[in-house]
Amino acid sequence: MMSEWTSDELTRIANAEELEIASVRPDGTRRKPVTIWVARDDDSLYVRSVKGPSSAWFRGTQDRHEGRIRAGGIEKDVTFVNADHAIDEKVDAAYRAKYRRYAGSILNSVLTPQARSTTTKLVPRS
Hints:
Blueprint: H1 7-15, E1 19-23, E2 34-36, E3 39-41, E4 44-47, H2 56-64, E5 66-71, E6 74-82, H3 88-99, H4 104-108, H5 113-116, E7 120-124
Antiparallel strand pairs: 1-2, 1-5, 3-4, 4-7, 5-6, 6-7
């Protein structure tokens, strides 16, 4: 059974400028946290790797699909779920709305096919 974000958690994490993400290694230890952007669509939170699937932090999420995030004063264990790419347009729109003040080249780094291929849903673990 997957748990849900509370509305407070969703708001605080989605309103945070950045999110710290640390995946769990195969041996169960946590990697060093990396700072990335986070976007919200409805009751879901998504992250993407600017460098695509070759990024070390993204590869780490593929080992055990477990980790910990911190943003907006919330710290939570999560499951990393590879998102259905039917959601890509909505996640693009969420990133555009949240980070529109950044120069095009910076914002566009999360909108490339490479970055889109890594769209990951963050699901809280109870």
